[in-house]
Amino acid sequence: MHATLPLLQKTDFPALRRSKLVTLQVNLGYRCNQQCLHCHVNAGPKRKENMSSQTVDEVIAFLERSDVKKLDLTGGAPEINPEFRRLVVAARNLNIHVIDRCNLSILFEPGQEGLAEFLADNGVEVVASLPCYQEDNVDGQRGKGVYESSIKGLQKLNSLGYGRENSALIINLVYNPTGPFLPPPQEQLEADYKTELYKNFGIEFNELFTLANMPIQRFGSMLISKGEFKNYMQLLKSAHQIENCEHVMCRNTLSVNWQGKLYDCDFNQMLELPVQLQGKTHLYIKNLNSKDIDDLSIVIADHCYGCTAGQGSSCGGALT
Questions:
Q1: pLDDT per residue over 104-156, tens digit each?
Q2: How confident is the model at residue 282 (pLDDT cuts 50, 70, 90)?
Q3: What is the dihedral of CA 74, 178, 142, 264, to 10 degrees?
Q4: How far apart are CA 186 and CA 174, in angstroms?
Q5: What three-state secondary structure class fits 108?
């Protein structure tokens, strides 16, 4: 796989500083039951990285001593980690809002029996990947049969109350472009998703998040192989909106990798660009006082334009 960091480090992206920490995003491991073309984590079934029980204990200890309001669990497929459910319960006992970034097909994997019911019982918000409402596009990006299992997963979650009117159980969907172009306007695409999914399958959901593909890892390597990397970067830079810098997720979110190392965002984690504090090479969750990173400079590179291009892009969708 082609390395993208050497093409990204020289940058003219504007300097950013952190604000108060609100969300802790924890990557529980890079193993996944899927292997998607756009995956910035390069996750897949053969990955071995997995957060240990000890590191999960360190995450819980940080949640107990901090003012974090949200715990955002990601992977890979975060549910594959055997510590997933223990971490969810610990966070909910601290009255912390928990988000599970779920690929939907994981709900039907061996060993995941009762997962959907567990998420509902604990009031976990589900953010589910569904890069299109059409089967060919989904299977082309995520693998044959993924669309069918995703629809079944959404129907299962709907049956438990997720996405239904007057329900407190939240399910949001995620759209990624299938190629080197920016997402369409989020509001209109959400309306299309809701119309098509309800008409064809009776599926309901709360919101659609549109995310730009990052020029790193598997997607970035594909761009390099096709000779499209430079053009995609030019697209991102030409569409840069300076006002989006006020709302990028790295300003109030901290990313934790499977070893407990800290990064300004999940993308920096994949590029091995750690949080920089007082000259330390790596800062770990076990040593962190959240006030240590207030107003800290954010580590930037050219991939940051992926978050500020057009309507903007974050783990919560469009910024404007």
A1: 999 999 999 999 999 999 999 999 988 777 766 665 565 566 788 899 999 99
A2: confident
A3: -20
A4: 10
A5: helix
Q: Is the preceding omega at residue 111 within 30 degrees of 0, hence cis?
A: no
Q: Tell which residue, 184, 72, 77, has the closest CA to residue 132.
A: 184
CA distances from residue 53 to 4, 92, 116, 283, 290 in whole angstroms, order as listed: 32, 18, 23, 19, 22
Q: How many CB atoms lie within 10 A of CB 163?
A: 23
For the chain, what is the mean pLDDT? 91
Q: Would you give the end-to-end CA distance of the chain in angstroms?
A: 34
> pTM of the full predicted structure?
0.93
Domains and CATH numbers, the chain: 5-308 (3.20.20.70)
Q: At what angle do helices 229-238 and 217-225 cross, to 10 degrees?
A: 120
Q: Where are the alpha helices (DSSP H) in the chain?
A: 5-8, 53-65, 84-93, 115-121, 135-142, 146-159, 186-201, 217-225, 229-238, 266-271, 305-308
Q: At which residue do the structure tokens 């590191």 appear?
A: 55
